[in-house]
Amino acid sequence: MASRPGVFTAAALPDDVYAVVGCSECNHLWLLSDPRTAETATCPRCGRTHRTKQLRRLAEDEDREAARQARSALLAKRNGDSEAFAGTAHVAAMEREL
Fold first, then answer.
1. How confident is the model at residue 63 (pLDDT cuts 50, 70, 90)?
2. What is the pTM of this model?
3. CB neighbour list of residue 21: distance below 8 Å, 6 or more residues apart
């Protein structure tokens, strides 16, 4: 099965993976740093505990900054700001400027 950038098949997952996951209760998106080893994950916004295997992984990457960028792009898309987001600097670059 061919994989898309940022999406890995189970056999191709590196040891350290960051997943962008979403809460089914409040729709918050956050980074989960250990999606294959953690049994549960708690939403940082509403506090709901989820079984990690049941969380929908919207993006995965072995690079934390790339996963953060994917989360930012998903949030921009959700808010209808994809075009504006495409014209901005990488999230890590913006943080360095602050």
1. very high
2. 0.70
3. 29, 30, 31, 32, 35, 41, 50, 55, 56, 57, 58
